[in-house]
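Thread: Newbie trying to understand structure tokens

Hi all, I'm a second-year student working on a class project, and my supervisor (Dr. K.) asked me to get a predicted structure for one chain before our next meeting. I've only ever worked with sequences, so writing a 3D structure as a token string is new to me. If someone could post the tokens and maybe explain what I'm looking at, I'd be very grateful. Here's the chain:
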Amino acid sequence: MPGPPRVTLDDVARRAGVSTATASRALGDHPHVAAATRARVREAAEALDYVASPEATRLAGGPTGRVAVLVPHPSRWFFGELLEGLEAALRAADLDLVIFRVGGPEERAAFFARLPARRKVDAVVVLAFAVDELEHARLASLGVDVVAAGGRVASYPSVGIDDHVAGRQAMDHLVHLGHRRIGMIAVGDTQRSGAGPSGKDVGCLAPEPDGRTSAWRAALGDAGIAPDDELVVTVPWGGEGGADGMARLLGLRSPPTAVFAHDDETALGAIRTLRRAGLRVPEDLSVIGVDDHPLAALTDLTTVAQPVRAQGRRAGELVVAALRGELADGLPPAELLPTRLVLRGTTSPPGAPR
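---
Reply by user tm_fold:
Sure, no problem. This is what the structure looks like when written as tokens:
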């Protein structure tokens, strides 16, 4: 007759009320695990007569003092801000940050194909891109905690903003000014910067609706304005995309009087097209973005500010808490940081005099 089922590390983790990765570190005397958590895990292991397998022992090995960070576009402002905040929090805990670029599809596929052999870090942070099921399985094979910054990603603890709320702040401002024909330049390139919804890949395990697009529709509906899909264009991320999107909107028989762009860099591209067309901003057409990119203040762009660096810093704090065994097993709620409307000079009531 078969004997009783073998007790696994997962069983120990469930009994102790911690994640499997935390249980592994506790049994391996990881220095970042709190003493109370270590004691709780050991008590659970003794109660279950747990015997570590060679694989579990390998995963529990000594701490590396390193945290891997997966970033699609490290040269872009949004990711740079996330990295600044993340690095500050990890440095304060004597942890080093190791950056892995996962930009284009081929680069990303190659990285995840090699990932199971990369058990040389204590945790992983995913910056503002979603993972598909295969990538999720590869990350799980590392046996370490995973945290996301810049938006909700799969089933990981995450820090971001509420994109629908940010979109409503922008749209409600335009509606309040009296605009009724409001266009939207949405960003549809899933490999663009992680600022908001355009940083979420279509392969997310739990895809969320595009919050900024849904905000456009909801704000118009609440104001009694029928959404006109002719006023929506989708472009790749960046200034050139915004310039092209604005040109398409100006080509309509009845152009909008205001435009909501999904991010500031797209908004600035739209403004370039307007000025080259001899149109005044905001007298002839208002423009608003999201992010509060440094260029927004220099160009007097009205926008909705999001605390990007704070998102990175808070994600780092979650990593430290996970390594200390202070995060309960199971999915913590996504932490959403507040956004705020920043009034500048690119919005005004429709037809406002010079």
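A couple of things are worth pointing out once you decode it. The mean pLDDT is 85. The CA atoms of residues 280 and 312 lie 37 Å apart. Feel free to ask follow-ups in this thread.
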